[in-house]
Amino acid sequence: MAKGGGNSKGKSMKTGHGMSCVIAAILACLGLTRGSAAEGPNATGVTNPFFAMCTGTRDAAHETFAAQADMLKELGYQGTDQMGTAGIPELLAELDERGLRFFAVYTEVKIDPDGPQWDTGLEDAIEALKGRDAVLWLPVTSKRFAPSSPKGDEDAVAVIRRVAEMGAKSGLRVALYPHTGHWLERVEDAVRVAQKVNRPDVGVTFNLCHWLKVDGEDLRAKLELAKPHLFMVTVNGAEVGGTDWSTLIQTLDQGTFDVCGLLGMLKEMDYKGPIGLQGYGIGGDVSANLLRSMDAWRICQKRIAVGGSTNE
After folding, report:
1. By C-alpha distance, which of 302, 304, 290 is closest to 76?
2. d(Cα 267, Cα 220) in Å, to the nearest integer?
3. Which pLDDT tens digit goes with each residue over 245-262?
4. Predicted local confidence at residue 44, as pLDDT
5. How far apart are CA 175 and CA 144, in angstroms?
6. Would you say 80 and 94 are in contact if contact means Cβ atoms under 8 Å apart?
7. Distance between CA atoms of residues 145 and 149, nearest Å
8. What gap in Å lies between CA 177 and CA 112, rounded to an integer?
9. In a domain, 270, yes or no
């Protein structure tokens, strides 16, 4: 299962040497250098922990957790997540060795009672994550209920409460994950269900690419709706009006959507939680992709620090 949605692997980068030169020139004007981690996320206007989602950290040169952790450390990311429950102890060991953080385990829950409703390895993963400031990232699927249908709320609330109770034993929180085509598809669905679950350790995620895919309207209103329950945010470069993942998931230096404006809104709302970089399906050299996105992240830091933060 892919956090980005449909299969768009192997798509090529749209910008080349020209965009790289522009980024380099902007960084020079701002007093930054490409790939430099010295500036750090707390040095400017964006203070949120910034991590690279595992959807964009693996290629032929970075097959192992050790290689991925080395790359993230070098590029200045604060850690990563994991899709599914397999391999978490091994990943944790590599992250710990480099002073990096594990942010979330993405693990699907189902509201169809005729089979397993969560990953059979979830309890072991929860035990391995005991005492860490991590979340259980829950997309919610169903064969019985249409996307966004409130008819599934009762079943969803019951399953999510059970998972939250398991997570609470290790001090973990639950962040519902809106995903295109799933029963829990929209951020307002996540808010509605979180309110019905009514636990302080159950909140929601705002996923930029999925919001653009299924909605794309009234950004500030959707963020304000999510604000009381907002545990996680994911971002990426994207084209306004894009319709497929090749246009809706790009490196941060690409696309016409104003990601700096989104980050500025989150700062105004006093959102201090983690922000993950979505990388599903971008393809190519993941180290180069992550470097480009880190450069663009630092440009946003500077822009927000000097007050050019918001986009209506």
Report:
1. 290
2. 12
3. 999 999 999 999 999 999
4. 52
5. 23
6. no
7. 6
8. 18
9. yes
Give the side-chain half-sphere CA count within 13 A for 200: 1
Q: Indicate the number of domains in the chain.
A: 1
Q: Which amino acid is at 180?
A: T
Six token digits for residue 51: 């991590």
Do the domain assignments include residue 103? yes
Q: What is the pTM of this model?
A: 0.85
Cα separations in angstroms, 289 against 147, 177, 252, 255, 295: 32, 24, 9, 14, 10
Does the residue 206 lie in any domain?
yes
Tokens of 217: 């309207």
Query: What pLDDT is stored for residue 79 in this prediction?
Result: 98
Q: Quick one: angle between helices 187-197 and 153-168, nearest 10?
A: 70
Which residues are bridge partners to 233 per DSSP?
206, 275
How many CA within 13 A on the CB side of residue 83?
Answer: 15
Please list, in sequence order, all residues whose beta carbon lies within 8 angstroms of the beta carbon of residue 242, skipping any fewer than 6 positions away: 212, 248, 255
Collapsed DSSP state (helix, strand, coil) of residue 81 = strand
Bridge partners (DSSP) of residue 137 are 106, 175
Sort residue 124 into left (φ over 0), alpha (ψ -120 to 50) or beta.
alpha
- What is the DSSP-derived secondary structure letter of residue 118? B
Q: Domain containing 148 — which CATH number?
A: 3.20.20.150
194/77 Cα distance (integer angstroms): 29
The stretch 96-121 carries a mean pLDDT of: 94
Domain assignment present for 3: no
pLDDT tens for each residue of 131-164: 999 999 999 999 999 999 999 999 999 999 999 9
Cβ atoms of residues 288 and 251 within 8 Å:
no
| Average confidence (pLDDT) over 256-272 | 96
> Domain range holding 187?
50-305
Residues paired with 176 in a beta bridge: 138, 204
Identify residue 284 by its one-letter amino acid code.
Answer: G
* Contact present, 297 and 49 (Cβ < 8 Å): no
pLDDT-derived band at 305 (thresholds 50, 70, 90) equals confident
Distance between CA 79 and CA 98 in Å, rounded? 9
